[in-house]
Design goal:
Length: 325
């Protein structure tokens, strides 16, 4: 199971990689809700067929919601209901916590070359040999092929500033313009697949004009600070103009105000932006917790600098400047 951070089984890999001077990393995960059909046998040996969805995906597997009780080690068939592509998976573990209300399962793909999720996860050798790569889910504007691309700082800034980035498309076979892949366009939640946003009466700013808050998967550097002074460095899992999702070890509760600085600008040029914790989802084992947070004071200068750094634009409510997703 590779979508949970900090698993004990990865220690050997980590030590080995450090010896060779390369940072340890498996394929990047994406919090992505993909409709799927799951077929297999439950713990009683009864065949079932369930329509459900993914929570997290990566190259080698994912975390999925299945109401039926599954046997660890058993094989199930998953069909991506968008692409109709099917693949065999092994049930690796049951997630300890569940906010979806149904059991959640870690599954390992037995045919990873099939790319059942419709996302290409590059291997390390396919990535640029540069430091400080930022992973972003991109989409070819022509064929809609998706890739969890590793971008240099310069490439990310160009993408953010111009809403497009020319690069090779394996499916088209030529250089194409790529854009941020929008993974959700529902208002009010960074990732409703993981948890319903708390009914807190917080009206996300920016929705008064009916515009939806689009979410993209971009792993930007992130500093989180709590009012008591404790802090942690992480990366975002996904971001929108007014919200972000991340994993970290700090213990925060729904409704807490924390301070975040996000983006590729040098730390000295960033501002702490107050954000409200909207939902949390403990990962299983000793892994970190996923949090969803909404920026407070969304139209102040701190939030504007966040949007400039993350998306390359400064959105003044009086101006009709929107990112071109
Ligand atoms: Zn293409």
């Amino acid at each position: 199971m590779t979508c949970q951070p900090g698993k004990p089984g990865e220690e050997g890999v980590r030590v080995m990689n450090e010896r060779f001077g390369t940072p340890p990393r498996k394929s990047e995960r994406v919090l992505l809700r993909i409709p799927i059909r799951v077929e297999g046998k439950d713990t009683l040996g009864n065949e079932f067929d369930e329509t459900t969805y993914t929570l997290v995906v990566n190259r080698s597997g994912g975390l999925i919601v299945v109401a039926h009780l599954l046997q660890q080690g058993s094989t199930i068939k998953i069909t991506n209901l968008k692409s109709r592509i099917s693949c065999s998976f092994e049930v690796v573990m049951r997630a300890a916590g569940s906010l979806s209300g149904s059991p959640e399962w870690g599954v390992k793909c037995l045919e990873p070359e099939v790319e059942i999720w419709g996302v290409h996860f590059p291997t390390r050798t396919e990535e640029p040999a540069a430091a400080n790569l930022t992973h972003v889910l991109l989409e070819c504007r022509e064929c809609f092929y998706r890739e969890m691309a590793a971008l240099t700082v310069e490439q990310y800034r160009r993408l953010a500033a111009q809403s497009r980035l020319p690069r090779s498309c394996p499916k088209c076979g030529v250089i194409r313009d790529w854009k941020f892949a929008v993974i959700e366009d529902e208002p009010g939640g960074v990732s409703p697949a993981l948890a319903a946003p708390a009914a807190s009466g917080l009206t996300p700013w920016g929705e008064a004009d009916g515009r939806r808050d689009k979410v993209v998967a971009a792993k930007l550097p992130l500093e989180i600070r709590l009012p008591d002074g404790s802090e942690e460095t992480s990366t975002t899992e996904n971001i929108s103009e007014s919200s972000l999702c991340f994993a970290c070890n700090l213990d925060m509760q729904i409704g807490d105000t924390v301070y975040v600085s996000v983006g590729l600008d040098p730390p000295g040029e960033q501002r702490d932006i107050p954000a409200r914790i909207m939902w949390r989802r403990p990962t299983s084992g000793k892994g970190r917790t996923f949090y969803g947070a909404k920026l407070e004071n969304g139209n102040d200068t701190g939030a504007a600098s966040y949007r400039l750094s993350a998306f390359g634009f400064r959105r003044n409510p009086a101006e009709a400047i929107h990112p071109k997703f």
